[in-house]
Amino acid sequence: MATFLYKLGRLSFRRRHFVALIWVALLTLAGVGAASAPAAGNSSFSIPGTEAQKAFDLLEQRFPGTSADGATARVVFKAPSGEKMTDPGNKATVQDTVKELSDGSEVVRVTDPYRAKAVSKDGTIAYAQVSYKVSGMELDDAAKDALEDSAQDARKAGLTVEIGGDALQAVPHTGSSEIIGIAVAAVVLVITFGSLVAAGLPLLTALIGVGIGVSAITGLASALDLGTTTSTLAMMIGLAVGIDYALFIVSRYRAELAEGREREEAAGRAVGTAGSAVVFAGLTVVIALVGLSVVNIPMLTKMGIAAAGTVAIAVLIALTMVPALLGYAGRRVKPMGEKGKLLGRTAKQKPERPNLGTRWASFVVRRPLAVLLLGVIGLGAAAVPATSLELGLPDDGSQPTSTTQRRAYDLLSEGFGPGFNGPLMVVVDAKNSDDPKAAFTETGDAIKGLKDVVTVTPAQPNKAGDTATITVIPGSKPSSVTTENLVHGIRDAGADIKADTDAGVLVTGSTAMNIDVSEKLNDALVPYLVLVVGLAFLLLIVVFRSILVPLKAALGFLLSVMAALGAVVAVFQWGWLSGLMGVEQTGPVMSMMPIFMVGVVFGLAMDYEVFLVTRMREAYVHGEKPAQAVVTGFRHGARVVTAAAVIMMAVFAGFIGSSESMVKMIGFGLAIAVFFDAFIVRMAIVPAVLALLGRTAWWLPKWLDRALPNVDVEGEGLRAASGDDDGDRELVRV
């Protein structure tokens, strides 16, 4: 592989005009496609195989034309202090609002609170429910404006009016903090390279790669039913890995220049060596992201594949466009150790003492056991909050208190009880029953006898009379364990009803769907770990030609991800530093967060493992003792890995300013995970373990050594081809 990539790097350097033209053409094509593509609607959220989804599909079939997937809005009214919603003046205001809301072209129906008995027992709170033909993201701005104007008119009459539901759903924004993250990355690159030109190359190539990836996602969003979060995730990961991959190749290019090689030769060697690490690091990220498809949640699968595509583009750009731009930069990119005028030094300077990476690695190999124990205990302490992890999906109750959706949620809880915001819809399929009406009645009676049930509405059959819906109001809030137990209790009772009447009983609704999603994700976590970690483990065996090094990498990753999950729980569930992170409302951690973090963090963790340990292996196979190889790897790689980690943390942290709670949580989780993995696992635990293992770390059974392909990540083929394989050092066979 190194020889192929070496030739590719030289070719890209030499034919830079052609390479640059290809990438600019791709960027233009993707941009035009994105601009001309139809606007994407709200991504459909389906969970194949769950009972809630089966019930939803049955409703679509048996109750046609009801727009079951349409947007809804609950307009909640509260009377002024000392008044009732049944007072003539307040009643007239509500009825005028209902009439005004009914005039919208996209409105299916509006319930009158007084006819639907939607007035609280104390008479102070009432609500009108508005149902629309289309989803919240597809709703016209005019319909949203009409909804808000109607509420404002009622407020002028003296009522407190808030609007809940998904009709006012807005496209999430990331805020200015994303730009700050890129600015921090630029500063780190300038400090690392001491040159604006060298620092600008990784930023430029990363932005081009992300531009192509996100534009392609935007252009295909409507056809492939991609949500807005898909492009945000692709941008987040694409920026981070794009900058890092280019950073490693530019850094290796400068090191080759420092050894006196011509620029084209240096570019070829940089791509042949660092580029090999980029390829395998990128493969681990792609495996982790594409592996999300095993969960069988279409939205998560699309997010993973789209982000994986952006990572693949970042790898290709690093291998081709980076050497092409190095050709354009010429002498403006200085050899390693030679700074540009930007930092006030123009001559190559030999450091009087070893750099910080060398000094740190020397310390670790002298005290490996102490460093190992300190790192493991520290990460273990950070992971403690993860033992209190509570999973759920966000609803209006997780919105900031400043939003009208959250205030409407609180008013409904105040007037009708906490369970009113999470009603359960029970679907009774009596098509095979001899007496459907008796089945409907028996189902309702059985549910009334369960714990935590406040209200059970009469069955509402369809026109054919073979299917009915029953609405159940729990006594507890939607995200509570009690409500989850009620859902399982109804389903258990449904088994007895089916045995008696041959009627199937299914539970659906947003609350039941959230419960099913959480259970599905929990069930998929172990198979996902086995698949992704197993494939990457095999890949790393090929890269490092070792059993223990990949095993150590996987165990270190588990420490990182558990510590990162602990930090997420502490901030988003417990509320620690919530003000600093802009978390206005604490609550359960998003259900997909653990499995998503496992996938993404594993891929990113392997980046640093590959980049750092390949330099150690390169030194070891060329004759250095194991402890000295660790120090050599740090001397060449620690500075660049540190810069890459800081850049990646800055990019991810930039998304903490997003208005979308899922994006905010992902940004924080990935940023803290990179910190734990890069600075504690890879910079401390990894060298400590390698120092303790010695030559054993690079042991590989002979039969496996013969069976594995030689991918030559160390670039040995390049040394042999050029005759500069350092004859004073014996090549170690491992």
The structure class reads: alpha+beta
**Beginning-to-end CA distance, first to last residue:** 18 Å
Percent helix among the residues?
55-70%
Portion in strands:
5-15%
What would you call the quaternary organization? single chain
Structural features:
single chain, 734 residues, alpha+beta, five-stranded antiparallel β-sheet, 23 helices
Descriptive notes:
Helix content is 62%, strand content 7%. The longest helix is centred in the C-terminal third of the chain and has 35 residues, at 510-544. The chain has helices at residues 2-14, 16-36, 51-62, 88-101, 141-156, 177-193, 196-224, 228-258, 263-290, 298-329, 356-366, 368-383, 404-416, 436-448, 481-501, 510-544, 548-573, 578-581, 593-621, 626-653, 661-693, 702-707, 716-722, and strands at 72-78, 107-110, 125-132, 160-165, 391-392, 424-429, 453-456, 460-461, 467-474, 504-508, 589-590. By secondary structure, it is of the alpha+beta class. Helix 12 (368-383) runs parallel beside helix 17 (548-573). The protein is built from 23 helices and eleven strands. Strands 6, 7, 8, 9 and 10 form a five-stranded antiparallel sheet that branches. Strands 2-3-1-4 form a four-stranded antiparallel sheet, with helices on both faces.
